[in-house]
Amino acid sequence: MHPAGSGAAGTRRLAEPYLPFWEEEVEVSRLIQTLIAAMALKQRSGLTVASLRTILKVTGGVTSRVFIMIKSLAVEAIETGEERITDDAVQFWQPIWAKHAWRTPHRPMAEFG
Question: C-alpha distances in angstroms, 59 versus 1, 65, 110?
């Protein structure tokens, strides 16, 4: 018996859920438009199919990453006064996980001592 949250069982419990690979872009659009609507922006976003594909490519289809991306884009839209998520914003968005993951400079152990 492993303590709660340890070992492989804990890893499986906390793994990021993946979105299915939809054959119809309509389903992807519905999901993303539902998320955008939940952000209560003042203007309709109306993203193109290319932007929807970009969202799936950038997030790798990971549900939590799609939510993070849409929320981040919505916050940016509010802060800039745009009040909608634009195709340009999607194309130029930088994922949080890319900014922080594996970006720490390698320093020899002697520097920590």
Answer: 35, 5, 37
